[in-house]
Amino acid sequence: DQTIIALTRQNGFCTINIYTGNIQVYNAKTQQGLMTKDILPVAITKDSQLWFVGKEKTGMYLFDFSTQKQYYYPPVSQGLAKPNRPVTPFVFTDYKGDVWVQPSGGGFSKFNPSNYALIPFKFTDYFPNGNYTNSFVAAFFDKQGNLWYSNESAGLVKVVFGENNFKTSSVTNKLIQSSTKEVRSLFQDKTGN
């Protein structure tokens, strides 16, 4: 089944089967309460789920094509440090297939597909100097399953998940100490570094 999704500025979105030409329209008329104004796509996950945000409201929307339902997740900021700049929304899948979400406005969380809930990532006792916030500037899972993230208060942090526990380490360099808290992008090359 080869289907593409087309989003419009004001009238929702549609799916188009490229072989049959069948078009299924999703808007406030076809799906009661569906968010259709100024949709900005964030991700499409393998379980036929469209994650998107609206320009005028923080948070994150999920439309599940298999259940034909929309879900809304408000931002949930936790921790002492509040971001000074807008918190970018993102959705990505880790190496085990789990979906991780950060709504516009903050609240990095793991998605629970059985009840469509976001489980906040909040382990404040382990984070450097109590500077933990779940509003990340950038986040990334490497091929080993470690979470790398940065925020305005703690710089770059690596979280190593174990069987029933995890540990964190702050990545610092004395020669560039002043700029380590300004990490804005994270990447992994094809060799795993």
Attribute tags:
four-stranded antiparallel beta sheet, 15 strands, 0% helix
Strand content: 35-45%
* Strand ordering within the main sheet: 4-5-6-7
**Whole-number mean pLDDT:** 78
Instruction: Bin the helical content.
Output: under 10%
Could you give a short description of this structure?
The protein has no helices and 15 strands.
Can you lay out the helices and strands and say which pair or pack?
Layout: E1 3-7, E2 13-17, E3 23-26, E4 39-45, E5 49-54, E6 60-64, E7 69-73, E8 90-93, E9 99-102, E10 109-112, E11 117-120, E12 138-141, E13 147-151, E14 155-161, E15 166-171
Describe the structure.
The chain is mainly beta and 193 residues long. The protein is built from no helices and 15 strands. It has strands at 3-7, 13-17, 23-26, 39-45, 49-54, 60-64, 69-73, 90-93, 99-102, 109-112, 117-120, 138-141, 147-151, 155-161, 166-171. The protein has a four-stranded antiparallel beta sheet with strand order 4-5-6-7, with no helix packed on it. It has a four-stranded antiparallel beta sheet with strand order 8-9-10-11, with no helix packed on it. A four-stranded antiparallel beta sheet has the order 12-13-14-15, with no helix packed on it. A hairpin with a 5-residue loop joins strand 2 (13-17) and strand 3 (23-26).
